[in-house]
């Protein structure tokens, strides 16, 4: 019985992954055609969907970086399986992720190979797997990295559950309105505003 349930969840998640990828690709094409405005890492774009209560809460929630040593360790262990995959993808592309103290996650820049081709296909410059940010630009903007760091925080809270949750919500709401993406853009806006205040002060 448990095996049947797990198999069903796997099939549903794979289907959600395909639908989510197709929707993201369609959105990227609509942007190129001028039918949708571009959405940067920190854009505050209008919501085009109606969220249920949980999705609305997720879209507003920017998890903070764990403050204690014990909290950081627990977060790293919980995100560990995804982080391992992120490291493997970076190393396969000939990149070694480096710890970014300010963002509290690993960053691999200048990504090439299958990972970068998939990102280009989906119209993205970076993605995050566990606590590892994989960015195609050699020198990505700090705001883009701050956006991706929110995904690292999400991985620290959800662990392996983040993958199916992200895909299911992407299939339902699309990439731009995926609550996890809206939260990441919200976190990046806060980071950008702090940077601006620091340089003008």
Poorly predicted ranges:
none
Q: What's the order of the H and E elements?
A: HHHEEHEEHHH
Strand content: 5-15%
Which descriptor suits the 3D outline? globular
Structural class: alpha+beta
Number of domains: 1
Backbone CA Rg: 17 Å
Instruction: Tell me the helix content.
Output: 55-70%
Please give the order of strands in the largest beta sheet.
1-2-4-3
- Between the first and last Cα atoms, what is the distance in angstroms? 62 Å
Count of extended strands: 4
Walkthrough of the structure:
- There is one protein chain.
- The protein is of the alpha+beta class.
- The protein has one domain.
- The chain has seven helices and four strands, in the order H-H-H-E-E-H-E-E-H-H-H.
- A four-stranded mixed β-sheet has the order 1-2-4-3, with helices on both faces.
- A hairpin with a 4-residue loop joins strand 1 and strand 2.
- It starts with a helix and ends with a helix.
- The mean pLDDT is 93.
Provide a concise account of the structure shown.
The protein is built from seven helices and four strands. By secondary structure, the protein is an alpha+beta fold.
Q: Layout of helices and strands, plus pairs?
A:
Elements: H1 2-32, H2 53-60, H3 69-92, E1 98-100, E2 105-108, H4 114-122, E3 126-129, E4 132-135, H5 142-158, H6 162-173, H7 179-200
Parallel strand pairs: 2-4
Antiparallel strand pairs: 1-2, 3-4
Highlighted features:
4-stranded mixed beta sheet, 7 helices, 201 residues, 4 strands, 61% helix, alpha+beta
């Amino acid at each position: 019985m448990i095996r049947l349930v797990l198999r069903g969840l796997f099939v549903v998640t794979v289907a959600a992954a395909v639908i989510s990828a197709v929707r993201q690709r369609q959105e990227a094409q609509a942007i190129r055609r001028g039918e949708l405005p571009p959405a940067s890492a920190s854009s505050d774009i209008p919501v085009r969907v109606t969220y249920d209560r949980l999705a609305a809460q997720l879209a507003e929630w920017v998890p903070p970086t764990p403050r204690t040593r014990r909290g950081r360790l627990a977060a790293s262990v919980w995100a560990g399986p995804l982080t391992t995959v992120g490291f493997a993808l970076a190393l396969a592309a000939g990149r070694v992720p480096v710890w970014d103290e300010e963002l509290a996650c690993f960053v691999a820049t200048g990504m090439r190979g299958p990972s970068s081709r998939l990102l280009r296909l989906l119209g993205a410059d970076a993605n995050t797997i566990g606590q590892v940010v994989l960015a195609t630009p050699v020198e990505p903007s700090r705001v883009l990295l701050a956006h991706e760091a929110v995904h690292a925080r999400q991985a620290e809270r959800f662990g392996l559950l983040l993958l199916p949750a992200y895909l299911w919500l992407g299939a339902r709401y699309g990439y731009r309105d995926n609550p996890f993406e809206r939260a990441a853009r919200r976190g990046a806006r806060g980071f950008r505003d702090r940077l601006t205040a620091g340089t003008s002060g």
